Amino acid sequence: MSKHHSLLQSFGAVMVLDGESRRIQAVSRNLNKLLGLADTELRAISPATVLGKRLSQRLRQELHGRQRLASPLAFRRLHDTTRLQVHAYRTHRHVVVEIEPLSPLGKRRLLGTVNERLMRLAEATHQEELLDYLVTAVQQLTGHDRVSVCHFDSDWHGLIVAEAQGGHLPALLGQRFPASDFPITLRRTYERHPIRLIHDASAHAEPPLPCTPEGESVDLRHCFLRAPAPERQRYLQRLGVRGAMSLAMQGDTGLWGLLFCHSAAPHPVSPPVRDAVRTLVQMATQRLLLLRARQEARYLQRVQDSLVLSTNARVEPQSPVELLSAQAETWCSLFRAHGVALWLKGSVYADGHTPDAAVVAQFVKRLDKAHRHSGPWCTRGVASEPLTESLNMPDQCGILAVPLPMSVAQRGWLIFFRPEQVETLYWAMQPTSAPLPPVMVAPSAAWCEEVVGKSEAWQRVERLAVMDLGEDLTLAISAYEISTLNMHLERERKALAAANQRLEQLAHFDPLTQVWNRYRIEQAIDAELVAAKRYGAAFALLLFDVDHFKQINDTHGHSVGDDVLVSLARLVETSLRGCDHLGRWGGEEFVVLATHSDMDAAVGLAERLRSLVATLHVSGLDQPITVSIGVAIWQPGDSCKTLMARADAAMYRAKRSGRNRVELAEERVT
Ligand SMILES: Nc1nc2c(ncn2[C@@H]2O[C@H](COP(=O)(O)OP(=O)(O)OP(=O)(O)O)[C@@H](O)[C@H]2O)c(=O)[nH]1
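Above: query sequence and guanosine-5'-triphosphate SMILES. Below: predicted holo structure tokens.
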């Protein structure tokens, strides 16, 4: 335990009791003065002599099983007008009682003033207004020479953001205190004891006097009256400060800042004023957090408003290139960036000031390895960051990159770039490590430093917002990929349908005449045979053959022969009923399947067709075209083969009987 942990400031007095709070084991030297006791009396006192019987009993009760008094107790000693305030807490072995005089300040008046200040604080709508009002109000209450608010940045450097000046100390507004001024142990202390009062930094600190022979050193680390550590004393001296009070401004994620009250001369602050300042600071901090939360919410809303992508994308999906060219400007202004790149499946899409595509790809490769989790990655010093220092990014200083979880195996990246922002920082006091310039400057003189090679810092809210944007973009790109995939599928489906149709055509139609081929007409005949067998519905087959076709071919050429076949098929097909079918049986032979037809109807149809064909005129052919037709009527027990054989025989009979005729097939002998 370092020595100063058992030294005390003298603006109050301390009594160290045993663990039972029954016996005094040590007191501070000034206790007798505070209580108006003779030095000789000190050795013989008990808690009851100091506090009175009732209060010492109450103290024992309240500390029973508790670490500290819930709130201070006030008392007045017999025959004495001074009111005193008592605080007490337990250490490992002792109970430490701190006693301070209460100034006869009009408590009512103080309350009224504090209330009025609180109301004003609660009405502030901007951080600057709020803090300016806070420092002014605190200075009026405590009378310190200078009251400042110091805000910590993410590196724990403190910037003085508001200040009220009484004139005796130099201004610190806009200056910074290095993080080394606020070591972690000091910051932790503020979590436990949000207020620190140093009445006189130069005052001689004293150890408590042991009152019993076994009196041992007491740990006064948590004592409000503890003396400042020697290094803190020196620090304040360098600042020209003797009286100091500081209060923690506790944010939701840690210490937001500190409120400092400094005076060039020793400066006491009575307990009620301290309480009032503490209330004001707490209220201001709450208000501050609320204002910041509102500001962040407004910013996030703006980012949300720009996230129409996913909704739009569902209606009209855009490609990554389209997305980027439509949104890059908005995104860059939201994230205060001068360039943005989108890395997807090995391709880089970029807008604004970005490094070369090859450099982006290299960066992504490293990032993918080094940064496995789903949150964003950022730096404000590309050249000094191990991941990026060897990459050629001359125009970039800051990078904010968010992964896009496109698939389990592969991530895309959305990357924002910020330029360098040369910043002049004003530091409070010369650094102790730096040698002093030959001409002595006041040790408290500020010095300024130009910070190069850094971009503006990426704010917490920006890192949150970029995750929203990343998610939205992932959705938009996935929607686009799905729609492109669907488009391909649709195209393939159509191509397949067309191929199927072609296949069907080839399989079922005669390529020359476009009427059914033999295979298809046979299928139709078989189907008709099944129906006829089941329902007894008669049907007929008409087999016809062009007369002297060889001679047409030989005389006029094959192509005229083809024309004859095509014209004939067209003519016959168009003159048939919808329920009858025409098929090419082979060569110049055709078959008509006449459904629901008995002998009369079939012969009638054959005759009609025969005379119709005789009227056919084909260009390049001056002779009439005639056909010989054999008609076979379905009989129970018929197959396609037997029916066709009968029709064929009838047709040959027609040929033999002089052509251009219809012959009815003989009935099958059963
Ligand atoms: N142009 C053309 N000719 C074909 C086609 N298919 C078969 N032929 C010809 O049709 C002719 C049929 O002749 P034949 O079987 O002797 O009969 P025909 O000359 O019509 O005599 P009859 O039937 O007895 O009146 C042959 O010369 C075949 O080459 C075809 O698709 N186009």
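The pocket of guanosine-5'-triphosphate is lined by residues 512, 545-551, 553, 558, 561-562, 565, 587-588, 655, 659 (CB under 6 Å).
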